Amino acid sequence: MEDLTLKLKPKRILDRSEKVLRNKKILMIKVLWKNSQVKEHTWEKETEMKRTYPELFADSGKKFKFKDEIFFKKGRI
To answer: Strands of 24-34's sheet, edge to edge?
Structure first.
């Protein structure tokens, strides 16, 4: 029998967020998923994504910039 499941691969990180649940903080990332036909984004736990897709985080400092960091580097606040 042929496997007809749709295999999505993470393309890049779009955003980061911190969720607080009672006394616990969870780091979340917004991931752009892609295959040949579908593009979508979802919020995922950062720790699980690092474990499953470490290549997604290899250059994350170079590819992903927060707006606040960009304004700060240009001398704007």
So the answer is: 9-21, 24-34, 39-45
